[in-house]
Every structure is written in structure tokens, then in C-alpha cells.
Amino acid sequence: MQLPTMTLDGTWDLLPTEEFAQGYYPLDDQAWLTQELPAHWQQHPLLEYYAGKMVYRRRFAYAGNDSGVFTSAEHTASAPSPTSSPPLRVWLRLNGTFYWAHPFLNGVDLGRHEGYFTVCEREVTQSIAADNTLIVEVECPDEHDKLGKRLITGVFSHWDGLDPETNPGGIWLPVELIQTGPVHVQQVLMHTERITDAAAELRFRATLDSMVAQDVRLRWVFTPQNFAGAVQVVEQQRTLAAGSHTIAGSVEVRDPQLWWTHDMGHPNLYHVSLEVWCAGACSDINTYSFGIRTFLLKDWVGYLNDVRFFIKGNNYPPGDTRIATMTRARFDQDMQLAQECNLNMLRVHAHIEHPEFYESTNAAGILIWQDFPLQWLYQREILPEARRQATQMTHLLYNHPSVVMWCMHNEPIYIADTKDERLSSRLRVYFSVFVFSWNRDVLDTQLKKVVESEDPTRPVVRSSGEYSVPFWRDGTDGHFYFGWYIFYGKLHSWPKIMRRFPKNIRFVTEFGTQSFPNLESTLKFIDADITQIDWDHMVERHHLQAAVLDHWLDWRNAESLEQLITMTQDYQSHVNRFYIDFLRLNKYRPTGGIVPFMFHDSNPAIQWSILDYWRIPKRSYTAMQLAFSPQYFFTMLESAHYPVAVPLEVPLYVVNDAHRSVPAQIRARLISPDGAELAQIERDLTLPADCMAIEIERLRLTPTMAGIYRLALELRLEHDTMIAQEYEIIVKQ
Description:
By secondary structure, this protein is an alpha+beta fold. 17% of the residues lie in helices and 34% in strands. The protein contains 11 helices and 39 strands. The strands form 9 sheets. An 8-stranded parallel β-sheet has the order 28-27-26-25-24-31-30-29. Strands 2, 3, 4, 7, 8, 9 and 11 form a 7-stranded antiparallel β-sheet that branches. A 5-stranded mixed β-sheet has the order 33-39-38-35-36, with no helix packed on it. A hairpin with a 5-residue loop joins strand 38 (707-716) and strand 39.
């Protein structure tokens, strides 16, 4: 069952302007441009670098409430026949606009709306006519004060992972007209209260807008979406007062099929419909996907449906700089690549994604750590609006089973440019990290309380990247760039520091280095002749942090683009594996999750990704896929290099993240620089289910010559599956 809905997607008129005219604009069509919506106005060839104010216009015909049929000036909408009495009310819904939107229908002011991801819905029953003109004034300026931003757009307005010349302005999600009866379902929020083998109790809050006080019947329909099962219907009676009100209650689903991550089971989904009936007819209906599941985070260790599990994830930036272009198919491709990389979580990094992303993660069984779109520093005046939008984010994504965590702000610290390594800048960063930041200590603290009050079922992180400081603050998740940003220090310094402050590795959500994409992708935006590359342009437009890379690699002397690509990807793979090995060694002691930075590029770039903009895997993708293998055989080398003739020990560890015991065979070989085999062990063993890292052997080596010693590890599993990797032990005189 579905009530008539008309989409206003299609060809719109656009008019750039310096000042808005409160909905009144010239009729001369020669002054207007045209564009297919949804889109960003920068996708228009004449508006690529435009930022500021834009007027949108759409003319359409409407056949009237009595018929329940919508028509358009361009075509007749393919709406289903009404299944109820003639609709009495009409609603205009703008699903997403960057950033301010002010709609006018036939000259009637419908009110200004703020927020790129929040829905702007207005009743237009009294202003709709046979022939209509819809004007939407849209404003999305550039952020010029990087240390005091105003727009709640997260990474879209200021970040080192998006082209700084872009602006996300425009109507980026569909515009719709919706017909309802006298009662309109404005919102439904549902979560799992408790689960038994026989039934699941689901709690709901539904916001209904009723024209008059009346009795209504709520008809809940639960239809299996991706598994075989019976349709279940629950009916309830309620009495509504006139106006908009929120009602609460519970429904029971028999024989519940639980939602699991792809590595723990099947992500069973229900298609849920809430129909509101009054006077013998269906007045409105609200539908959504839902998964029955519980999630807890105890001391930063996750429990899904009361089963402990180890979180392995990655940071997910915008699917595309032009987020309006993302589709379900593109997101499904990303989810497949995430599954194949052995990831069970994605952190939506400092933005709200396209709605299709959340449907894709629901179906793929990928958990979501959801950031509120705040990145670095903001003006104090945004607090009231941030509180409102934090509430809207919670409501918008509440029903998605994949969304399991909220985070209110990413790195609320002094950062204008991550390439800035000056001492004065470092000192200001240190002050904001360890002493005081209004953004963290006031803004984020209030936002955390707002979201906790709206959603008591999910953990809420005040801000991402808060270090634990003894006798000062407990901290949150850790961000570490040892081996990349110079002020952090050398890579091998990190484990020594973390052993002194272990709370900082309870849950790590950022680490990594930049690398170039593979050759076929690099050639799409970089000259094939390495001597002709404009490196300043790569820094300004494609995110290369050249001065940082200078500190770690002799990349400027690369003889070819191919050599440069190999050099940077190998270094990235080495650094990522080092972090992952140490954190897997500390699984549950205390590490509960590993979320490197980052999954893909949102535009052609040289950055921290393991997939480029075209979703071609780098070698670092394959390396991370191996390092995140459910069963893993590895070592930890305490130093970057060792002296000749000094004895050293090489520990060998195994770990199993699967929730079943796994028989395995291991083989380790130690090989000298001249190719001689110095030691070898082979062993059969059974890895316990979801075990912590186990030390199974400790090789002892007294190197007699300088050079590179190799430790070759092989882990053979069922069905002749083998995981193999090598570690280099560098010995110097």
C-alpha cells in the first residue's frame, strides 16, 4: 500500500544571484539556466566554481485533492492509484539541500530551513493550485575562517581530504509532494528493547499530525526483506488530539530473525510499515528497513546480540565529492570491497552520507560509527543550531540497524592546515588537545547530552581523538600518526608510549600515511613524465603533503612515476600493518576496535586511502585485507633496525576472531641476507574461538652480518586456505 507521491525531480531553472528577493524573480527565461536535479549546482558547466546564493524554480501542474492525481508540466507522474479516500492534505518535502533553503510556493513563504542532511517538510494544502511555481532560495557559501566555521557541513566545507576548490551547494536529494489523509505520519523511531527465542519486543515513538481530535488504528506490518518468513501484522488503537503529537508504545515480533554483521551471521532485515487508519481509510503510511539487534560497548569492546566481537573497520569519507551522484549500486560496490577486506565497521567520517549508503550497509551487515558533521573548530554561535541538527541526525538514522555509535565531533582542536608543521602551530594544537577547547569541552559536551537523551540505546562519543591523560581526562578513541606527521615521531616510538598509557589504544580510529594510486588511475590526473609534474598543483588540488613525505621517503629522486607509486604504497602498507599488528596483539587487552584512516578517495587524489577514487585497490588494500584476516599469524618487531652481533628475540603470535575454533598449521622460517635458512618451525594447533593473541614461539637470532633478514610466516587453514607474509629484520653495523 502506498499513498500518492509526486517527485519534482527533473529539469529545474537556476538563477545565480547576489541577493535574494523573497521569492519574486523575473519571468524572463533567458536569464535562467537549467539543470537536472538532484544535483550540485557546481555540476553545471557554467557554475563549476560558483559559491554563494542560487535561486531554483520549478513549474508543475496539480490536478487537485479530489482526484488524488498529480501531474507535471513536463509529464504525468507515475503515482499509484489512491488506496484510501480522497486525500485532504498535501506536503512539500525537500530531502536534502546544501545548506540553507527557503521555499516559496505560488508566492507563499514556507519558512527558511538550515541543514544539508535534515529534511525540510511543509504542509502546502492551502497554497497548492492547478498550476504551480515553486521557488527555492538556496545558499551555501565557502567557509573562509577555518578556525571558526559556521556551517554544520563537516568535511564538505573544510578538510584535507576534499578538493579545496569545491563547494557542495545545491538541492542534492529529491524534492517531493506527498498526499495524505487527515493524519500525517511525520516520523517513526523504533529500537529493540529485548529479545528471547520466542519473540522480540520493539519500542517505538511515532510523531503524528492530526487535523482534528480523533480515534485512529495503527497497523504495523513486518515483512521479511532478505530471508524467508511469514508476514506479521500488529494492530493498535489510539486517540489523537489535534496537532502534532508523539505517541510511544511497543510491538512484539514472533520468532525474531536477528541482524548480524556479515562475519558473524546474516543481516536479517524486515520491511516495516506503519499504516494509520481513520474513518475506515488509510490516512498515511511510513515504511523503513529494520533489523532486530542489540549493541553494547563495554570498556570499548563491542557486543552484538550479547556476543563479544572484535571490531575491524575503516574511515569512510564522502562516497564522492559530489555526494548527489552516489547511487545504491556504487555503495553496494563499496560494501563488497569492505567485506572482502575483512571489515565489519565503517566510520562515516565527519559527515552524514547519502540515504542509500545506510540502506546498503544494512543489507551488507556492516556496522556504522556515525559522526555528526563537525570537523575541527567552529564559532560559539552555532551551539543552538548544532543541538537542533544533532537531534535531527539521531531521528534520521535511528531505525538503521547498521548504525551503532554516535560521535559528536572529529578532532575539535586547533587545525587550519594539516600540512602546517611550524612550532607555533604545534603549540596551539597541543594546548587545544591537552588543556582547553571550547568546541570539545562545551559544544561537544552539550551535544553528547542531547543525543543521549534522544537515543539511550547507542553509545555516544563526545569527540573523536581525545587522548587519555592520567588524573586529567579518561579520553575516547585514539588518533595516531607516528610515522607520518613529524611532530608525532617515529613509528617504533608508538608502542613504547602506548605501553605506558594503554587506555589510548582501547579503540583506535585513525592512523596511516598517504600514497599514490595505481598507475592507471594516477595517469588520469597526473602527467606520465615525472619531470613534468607540477608538484605545487598536486599539493593545492590533490592533497599531497609533500613536505611530510620528504621526512620519510626519498621520493623526489624517484626515476619514474611507477617507482614513486611503489615506494609510497609499500611505505603505507608497512605503516598500516605495524599499527594493526600491535593492536591485534592487544586484542581485548584493552583494544576493542581498529579503524584506520581511510577507505577511499572522494575525488582524484594522493591521500591515506586504500582504494582510489575509481575504487581500484592499492597494494595497501591487499596488505590490510591480510592484516585483518580472521585468523592471523604475525610478529612484533620492537625496533626499526638492530645491531650486528647483539642477540634479539622474535616472538610469533596467532589470533582468531571467528566465533568457532579453527584447526591450523603454522610454519615460520628465518632467512639470512645471503639466503641461508637459519631456523624453521612447523606446528599443528587449534585456535580457540574469538581468542586473544597467543604467543606460540619465540625465535632467537644473533645476526652475524649486516643486511635484511627475512621472517617468512605461513598459516594454513581448512580447505587449503593459506595466509602468508614476510617481515624484514634490518641489521646495521
